[in-house]
Structures are given as structure tokens and as C-alpha cells.
């Protein structure tokens, strides 16, 4: 299985047409079709459903698409790690992060590192904790920024000095906006918009479950989200109250939104994690050194 053929396959999958893909790849359509047929024979699986003027991925095709994207991504990552000039620290650093104020710490360190070594570049991936850990395990990321507590026993980690604060995001015209802090009974029966992770058995769910209490039936969950910005748009339209973290969405005087912390106060620590025993590139190793200095200082 050649990388070139995987790129051909992904182009056909993206364009949904052998004709369009062949034009983009500057490869004749018969040659491209043969390459894909050879790939199907090699895998002993049908990858596309051929229609008159288009193609669609089969179930096996979708599986290969995910794997091919991962293979090509890690290939490019490996190539970049070996492409730096002698005597100069250059290359790429791959970081995954959830929606947390801790990204500001990452930004501070990244800016200082770029000032000292302008040949270093960064690749950021947004996702929840499980997504980030999966990409760390596959070698697609160097570091992950996650909200604590979480099961990070198989990773090395650094806890950031700053903490996130849980609270409720709402339109400033909403009745609960008059309160300085939100108690659990304030939310009973109100239309709530919660993170999808709350409905799953994750660390975020465990932390909030203790605050929400055992009687979940008292809460009226009307929507779930995985990106707080999207949920904030719903809150700005007075659709409901969003339970989330402070400092991510604009709640300044010019914003239609405001944030009220939970009471009792609920904080979340943030940690940077990486795979145990991982051999870092020179840029990633230097980034880790700078993060340690930042946190200890």
C-alpha cells in the first residue's frame, strides 16, 4: 500500500468523482481507476459504490478514509521532524486542546518560543479529552491540554497553575442574570444547554454530577453541545442557560452574554499531558522545557 495511492484514494473520496479527482491529480482517469481497483484488490474490499457520474464510499471505504488520513498525517509529521537545518531548531509541534482558558498559557509559551526560534511552527487540534488521548496514543499529537480530573495514569503530565471556573452562560436579559452566582435549585426546571460529555461517563460528568446532585430529573436539558461557542449563540438568543467554563466566550460590556459562577464554587484544574516514553523532536522537547519553566516560575 503506497502513500501515493492513499492520496489518490482520498482525493477521489473528497471529490466524489474519478473525473474531478483525475483533473486535480493530473492523472488520466483510466490510470486512476486502475490504481483504486488495485487497492481494492489488495485490501479485498470494495471501497466505492460506482454511479453513472459519481462515487460514494462504502462502509469499508469510510474506514480506510479515516486510517489513510491518520497515516498521511503522521507521515507528514515524521517528515517535518527530520527536515530541520543543522544547528537550527526547526520543525512542527502538534498540540491538542479542549475549550479551556488554559490555551492562553500555551499561547504565551508558543509566542516566546517563536521569538527565539522562528523556524518552529505549531499545529493545533481542538477536541474533547477522549479525542485528544486517542490522538496522543496514535502519535498524531505531541501534547494534549485537558481539563482535570481525568484518568491520565498512562501519560506524563504537568498541572497548570491557573484553574477554570464552572458557571452558567446566559443572555443578560435572562432572569438568572440578576444573580451574582447560581445555585443548583436556581436551575431546576429551567431550559439547560449542557456539554455532551456530561451525559457520558467522563471526568467532566463526575465533577458536575457532584454539584448537580442525584436528582437529575429536576433539570430540563433541552440541548447538548461539544463547542461552547455554538452553545453561546443559542444562549444569546435566550434559548436556554449554558453550563460551561468561564473565559472562553466574550462576556464583555459589548456582548449580549454574561457569565455567573456556580455556588458552591466549582473549579477545574488544567493539565498538559504526553505519552510516557515518547521521544520528542527538538522543537517539542524545547516546548516542554519552556512549559515546565513557565509553570514553576
CATH architecture group name of the largest domain = 3-Layer(aba) Sandwich
**What percent of residues adopt helix (DSSP H or I)?**
25-40%
CATH class category name of the largest domain: Alpha Beta
Number of domains: 3
Shape: globular
CATH superfamily of the largest domain: Periplasmic binding protein-like II
The chain-level structural class is: alpha/beta
Low-confidence stretches: 201-205
User: How confident overall, as mean pLDDT?
Assistant: 87
Order of SSEs, N→C?
HHHEEHEHEHEEEHEHEEEH
What is the first-to-last residue Cα distance?
49 Å
Computed over alpha carbons, the radius of gyration is 23 Å
Q: Largest sheet, if any?
A: 9 strands, mixed
Description:
The chain has 297 residues and is of the alpha/beta class. It has three domains: 3-81, Orthogonal Bundle (Arc Repressor Mutant, subunit A); 91-161 and 270-296, 3-Layer(aba) Sandwich (D-Maltodextrin-Binding Protein, domain 2); 165-266, D-Maltodextrin-Binding Protein, domain 2 (3-Layer(aba) Sandwich), CATH 3.40.190. It has helices at residues 3-15, 18-25, 29-43, 59-81, 103-116, 129-137, 203-212, 228-236, 282-296, and strands at residues 48-50, 55-57, 91-97, 120-126, 143-147, 155-171, 191-195, 220-225, 241-245, 257-261, 267-275. Strands 3, 4, 5, 6, 7, 8, 9, 10 and 11 form a nine-stranded mixed beta sheet that branches. Strand 7, helix 7 and strand 8 form a beta-alpha-beta unit. The longest helix has 23 residues, at 59-81. The protein is globular.
